[in-house]
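Sample 1 of the test manifest.
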Amino acid sequence: MHAPDGFLNVGTAIATGAVSAGTIGASLRQAKHTLKDKQVPLAGIAAAFIFAAQMFNFPVVAGTTGHLLGGALAAILLGPRIGAIVVGIVVVVQAIVFADGGLTALGYNVLNMAIIPAFGGYALFVLSRKIFPANSAGVVAATSLAAGLSVVLSAAAFSIEWLFGATAPVPFDTVFGAMVGIHLLIGIGEGIISGMAIGAVMASRPDLVYGASDISFEKDRRQESIPFRSFLIGGFLAALVLAVVVSQFAVGDPDGLESVANQTGIAGSGTESSFSDSLFADYATAGIGNETVSLAVAGTLGVIITLAVGYGIFKAMAGPPKKRKEVAQSWE
Amino acid sequence: MGVGHAHTLYVHEHSLIHRMASEVKILAVVLFVMAVAITPREALWAFAVFGIGVVALVMVARVPIPFVFVRLAAIVPFVLFAVVLPFIGTGETTEFAGLSLSVDGLWAMWNILAKASLGATASIVLAATTEVPDILKGLSRLRVPAVLTSIASFMIRYLEVVAGELGRMRTAMTARGYDPRWIGQAKPIAASAGALFIRSYERGERVYDAMLARGYTGTMPALDAAKATGRQWLLALVFPGASLLLAISALVTA
């Protein structure tokens, strides 16, 4: 998924770049107290671990192998904020030092490989914790489910970015089908390995698992209330992403006009818009067969992803589940 | 322990580009890649200029050409995707060697191939001519937050340690007859991932304690590296600046 330069159009690169930089910046500010001075070496070595974990190859189907992406795993081990920062750094270093992934593609690469798996994966983890019993087996099961689905979430996010920023005449449905299909298979491996890895950590150092900080200690005394400000910021971010998604419906109309123009030969003079390939040019018509359906699917998915990621950010701001003091200490 | 040695992408040479301050090189590569990204795909002449420029850059940097090709392997999955495009693309088609190809698909293939290979080659030149500590120093001079650069520097410093640990675990597993071929064997992989995390984390704790013992106060001492001179800025920004102008003129005249 390390997309090269120019894989999505410039507008998408800028938009995802702004979202990624904003989220990493906000995570940094939020994690300031834990990352201030002391935990920098730990976070760095955790990043090295994630980098190395991506070398774990596992068989997907006969002949093909996938490798661990580690976004959800990092979020469950370190918390979504530090998880997103750490995996984001891994992606940036891979681009600058190892020339793996384009520099202008960093916006969507960081978004798809670090932010969505970390926050989305953590949100899925918190939600699935509610289904499973509150013990280490439940944590392992929830990790598997969340890590597996986080890979699919990333694939879906990439497909949506393709819808807005396609540089090739391949319809959204085709990209979506292929991406989600392959990543369902990769997700199974990711889920099993992440879950078992968390199980292995829980067996000897349960205190290191951020997402399980509520269990294996005595029961919680009081429910932490979520500060109103965090709620506002989370809501604003969710609304912002939503607005981006919804605006695509609005821009959908001129494309209908454009297609009519094409049919009647108005556009036959053949002069390509001087901004083709740049901001908001032509994206929605890039080979999408059934525009309404594609946009509806994309919109719905966008909202789901937004809600999931928003919920993750929201949960992140609320701190680790229940016993936050103890864990906070291990990070301070 | 490979610490202190060059990373895999570094090519030890003494070229003009090797000597340049890293912040200059990083900025130059970023600007050049941006110019490539915004250039409309129809502006073939602009891509020709970029291509000649990048090849010249590789020559000046004395990076072996085969090395560049090997490193370009990172974009292969996307190249495969691009090559399929003319066949699956929709819209107007053209005949070539008896095949019906989508015109838009051909343009899309060209767009992805050209931009991906130009961008990756520029990044390879940066990585091949700059050692990692210099890249990090350059990034912090370009005002990247210190927390990020110091996490990155710890990550790179311990990457080989952690990877070496992983390698030894692999060897031990292989010696005991482990041969990962099927998803049913996920358990040992996961167990080693878990063990690797605990070992890494505990190493991190020890490193932090050791740093405290040596008077660490929260910020790493600034190591001096040669700062960029005005002449270096000028020299390094000529090509990306020209590329940006070219890209903008291609945008306007397209």
